[in-house]
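Weekly puzzle thread! Below is a chain. First person to post its structure in token form gets bragging rights.
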Amino acid sequence: MVFNCIFISLYLIVSDDFMGMQDSTIPNAVQQDVSQQAAGAVNAKKSSSSSGKPPRPTGVTILAILQILGGLIYIVLGTVEGALIGSGAVIFIAVGAFALITGLALFAGRNWARILVLIGGVLDLLGIPNFFIGTIIGIIILYYFTRPQIKAYFAA
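Winning reply:
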């Protein structure tokens, strides 16, 4: 599952960075026409919504879902462990609740959730809780959540 998260994160970084780039094989007139149609659709969508917030990036949505699922798994594990063994359940439930709240705040576009994720990325770089995989995930998280379009989503 960790490797799937890494590959999904890498895909999101590449797709978010390169989606806006123009393809040199498409004639400029076609690119301009498609851009104008897309801009018209975006403007129509923005005018119908009351908030001026940009649309949620796909990467934020997927990472928020993964965060929420991870939080729910920790809560269930803590509950099961508390019922069977009785020790350490509080830690699992607390970590799960923290992850769940952070995931929901990512969905809502709260900047404090982005900051918490960045802090988690720094902890991953330091090797907490694991070294190799944590370092890769930390780099991806720090890179992705400091992209201008991601910061713009959370700033609005």
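Puzzle host: Confirmed. Bonus trivia for everyone else. Residues 1-7, 17-31, 41-49 have pLDDT under 50 and may be disordered.
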